[in-house]
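Quick review question:
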């Protein structure tokens, strides 16, 4: 009996893992624009440890044993096939769209070229090493980790972290934000809360300049990092019939992560407005559900007979401030040792290298 054909669009944290786990039981085609996966959380540390850069760029060559990875850009999806910009057409019994999100350089590739991403990271790393003063605008996980990584690696630099919120990580218990603020300040970081930057020259890359705050202060800096959040790449799925999206562009779904009137098309990751944040932790909940559900559907079970997806009530979060210290919320607030053991020490690099079939020696 022929295996069911599954086409997965996007080789990020959702796409690569679902493709790998379904490889043995389905005819899997993974469509990805880039020749390699980039592990963004480690891209933060690579700015202060440039030798890490080669460790976090992971080619798709060894990901699948039976299925195939096709480099290309999907431009249309129907109930029965996916069409690429090249004109190639891939028939499908089931389709998963996981096209992810964009972010300011150099934390994610801004285009399809991995070489361009590498160069951008190297350029910013050199700028950061030379800068005496750094302003980071945005105090989510990326901004906070960047402040901590920079202060840990370059003690003595003037580092300012600016947040429009009155506390760090306001959606979490106050203890987490208070711990992180205190640790950043002990590292020498100036944390400014409750202020918006009014005149950012760029939103997609760092630059030299100044930042004006709503209270009238102007902070000059050798390097300004705009770290103001992800933008979902959802144009492909928004072209499907019956799709609706929020103001940010995340698409709404039914209980089984289906966004349109096509019953065999699913979405996951940053483009899905299903109650999860745009984080890797969200995919750690979505991926097992997608894998289990799609396996059952492949075997012939109706989608509606499967347990509906339930998002995190409050997702865990890990916030290292360099390789040694940090704080996290794992249903309770925890400190340096647990944050270091789980994430801070190696930023999950060995885990993802193993997932892509790449040894620690790079082979």
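Suggested answer, residue by residue:
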């Amino acid at each position: 009996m022929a295996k069911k054909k599954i086409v997965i669009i996007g080789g990020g944290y959702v796409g690569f893992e679902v493709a790998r786990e379904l490889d043995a039981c389905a005819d899997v085609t993974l469509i990805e624009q880039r020749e390699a996966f980039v592990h963004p959380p480690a891209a933060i540390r690579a700015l202060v440890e440039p030798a890490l850069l080669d460790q976090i760029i992971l080619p798709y060559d060894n990901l699948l044993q039976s299925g195939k990875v096709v480099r290309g850009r999907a431009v249309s999806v129907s109930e029965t096939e996916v069409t690429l910009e090249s004109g190639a057409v891939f028939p499908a019994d089931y389709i998963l769209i996981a096209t992810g999100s964009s972010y300011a350089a150099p934390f994610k590739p801004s285009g399809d070229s991995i070489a361009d991403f590498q160069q951008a990271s190297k350029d910013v790393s050199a700028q950061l090493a030379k800068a005496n003063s750094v302003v980071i605008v945005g105090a989510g996980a990326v901004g906070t980790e960047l402040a901590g990584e920079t202060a840990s690696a370059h003690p003595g630099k003037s580092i300012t972290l600016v947040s429009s919120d009155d506390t760090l990580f306001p959606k979490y218990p106050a203890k987490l934000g208070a711990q992180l603020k205190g640790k950043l300040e002990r590292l020498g970081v100036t944390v400014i809360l409750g202020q918006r930057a009014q005149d950012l020259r760029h939103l997609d890359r760092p630059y030299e300049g100044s930042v004006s705050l709503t209270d009238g202060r102007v902070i000059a800096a050798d390097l300004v990092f705009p770290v103001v959040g992800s933008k979902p790449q959802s144009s492909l799925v928004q072209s499907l019939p019956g799709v609706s999206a929020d103001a940010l562009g995340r698409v709404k779904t039914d209980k089984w992560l289906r966004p349109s009137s096509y019953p065999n098309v699913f979405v996951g990751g940053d483009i899905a407005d299903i109650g999860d944040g745009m984080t890797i932790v969200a995919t750690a909940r979505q991926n097992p559900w997608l894998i289990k559900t799609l396996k059952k559907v492949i075997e012939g079970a109706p989608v509606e007979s499967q347990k509906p997806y339930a998002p995190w009530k409050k997702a865990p979060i890990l916030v290292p401030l360099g390789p040694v210290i940090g704080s996290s919320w794992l249903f309770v607030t925890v400190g340096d040792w647990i944050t270091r053991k789980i994430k801070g020490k190696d930023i999950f690099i060995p885990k993802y290298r193993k997932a892509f079939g790449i040894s620690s020696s790079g082979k």
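Why it works: The CA atoms of residues 200 and 353 lie 36 Å apart. The longest strand covers residues 218-226.
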